[in-house]
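Q: How do we represent a protein-ligand complex in a form that can be generated token by token?
A: Start from the inputs.
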Amino acid sequence: MMFSRRLSSKIFLVAVVLVVVSALTLVLAPKAITSAQSGDTSDWQTIAEQRGLTEADLRAAVMTYTPSGMMDEYVMFASSGQAGQVLAIGLPSMRLLRLISVFTPESWQGYGYGADNNSVLKQGYIDGQPILWGDTHHPALSETAGDYDGQWLFIGDKSSGRVAVIDLRDFETKQIVHNPAFLNDHGGTFVTPNTEYIVEGGQYGLPMGGEYAPISDYQTSYSGMITFWKFNRDTGRIDMDQSFAMQLPPYWQDLCDSGKSVSEGWIFCNSFNAEMATGGIEEGNPPFEAGVSKGAVDYLHIINIKAAEAVFKAGGAVDVNGFMVIPLATSIQNNLLYLAPEPRSPHGADVAPHGDFIMVGGKLDPHVSVYSFQKIQDAIAAGTSETDTFGVPVLALESVLETQVELGLGPLHTVFDDQGYAYTSLFLDSAVARWSIGAEGYRPQDGWKLINKTPVQYNVGHLAAAEGDTASPDGRFLVALNKWSVDRFLSTGPLLPQNLQLIDISRPGDQTQILYDMPITGAEPHYAQIIKADKLHAWDVYPEVGWNPTTQSVDPNAVTQGTEGVTRDGNNVIVRMTVVRSHMTPEHVEIQKGDHVTWTITSVERARDATHGFALPFYNINLSIEPGESINFEFDATRSGVFSFYCTEFCSALHLEMMGYLMIKPD
Ligand code: K7E
Ligand code: CUA
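Then emit the structure tokens for the protein with dinuclear copper ion bound:
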């Protein structure tokens, strides 16, 4: 069944390629040279010859070239690292379709420049402290029965430990939440198979609740943390009251993944720094990078989220800064948490498509360790007398390990395809390892073994395969998310672009091929997910005129044509404006210095290509008003003068005339 999916389209593609390639081999050499000599560059064979393209290059071109008007088959949502955004990229063309602002203001989209007083960004402030950037790592598409459903996208901010919700009907950020008990994360976001919870694993040990504790008290006063954000599909929002966290030992929890199918209801996180090194080379301690890797083992965290939810609902959590956290002792008493040894400096914890295996890389170990979920269950049932320093039960490695597969240097992250292969990034080798999962339902005929390594350029972190971390991967395409491209593109100075490489994984065995290099002229996209494009159903225009995208409903405050104007109540001025190409109503807004201004702009457009902007100089206001959208903003008229506001989108031939004057009289 797995093998037959999209087989016909594959056969078609292969056939096209064969025809092209054989036509090329038959006719290329002599003819191309002749026409090249005659200066005839009108035919593709000549061009290929002149540009020095090989048959493999032409195959890659045929597989990726997307003529104008042809749509991509997949959309990849990639994080944008410390730029705090998400990128939407079409595959196989690797065209950048959209930048989604999440934690960072973005003027082009009018995000953070006045609209509804920057309400979404403000949700992400911590204790009133504006935080206007984020370090996005792991986007997670919402899932139904372990498969992407195309409705929502979530992403975490590693730097301040926040999670954002993006609505895929308009590709805009709707909510930012923060667990007030903790201040960083990494193992997030990952969703449970029906998106009941968005999982946000922690990273560096901290005193809970943002308190101070001396680093010498690390083992007694510092903790790890994992947060389970309850998602409400009806409201499209995280429900803070139904969300909770678990205190973990002060190891550095790293990447997490949700169990699926047989392992549904469980969460797996790798961790490092089981040594609980605290750095401090200044005081003669080993530096972090040495202390953290001194020991031979770290711990895979195995968390029973169903049981944890029951403990939370039964009142087993305590209030930390207004957020409910299950204390470590309670987790141990209720069998919510188990540990299993991991090889040195593990990285990544990836659950196989059938939920039966968990793959853990090892930055300083050439193997991927494969844990069996069945063996984990058997070991839990059999009981263990081993515990860690904090009394958390430790399952013996040999009791839970299925196998270890030697792949190469620096294995990090693993994704899957529809042929029973797994793919693991090898950071130090700068390669992608394809290996066979030697179990029933995958490739028992091949056994557990390395198949091939595809060199990539360079320093690969995560991999993303088409639906490659779901219950039913698509295969076909894989993207290596490489850092620092060094010699792949023309130099633009010392700051290097990242290089996303598209790889063909449609053929079995060692036939993998790099198809395309895409520079990302921004921060490092750590992780990405690739969804079949036909699962996305974005709106063409907002459903009704007067739509407020923050509430995803018609704004009661929206302005209708004929009701525009300026009204005053004491110092409070209300401006009600409509926009339609190529006109803003009213054109003149006259107020007094010292007024408090509440301004609403409603676009009455229904045409798809009629977005307007609204730029107001000095007052730091810039809006993007999409067809049907209604936006409110407020400001204090602190400076008198004449301010020309205008539309920032080239919306018509009379776009330059789409403007008006705000006249503020001195007091
Ligand atoms: Cu390996 Cu943050 Cu997923 Cu980067 S993490 S690569
Ligand atoms: Cu509206 Cu330009």
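The chain has three domains: 2-53, 74-106+129-203+217-232+244-276+298-535, 547-665. The mean pLDDT is 93.
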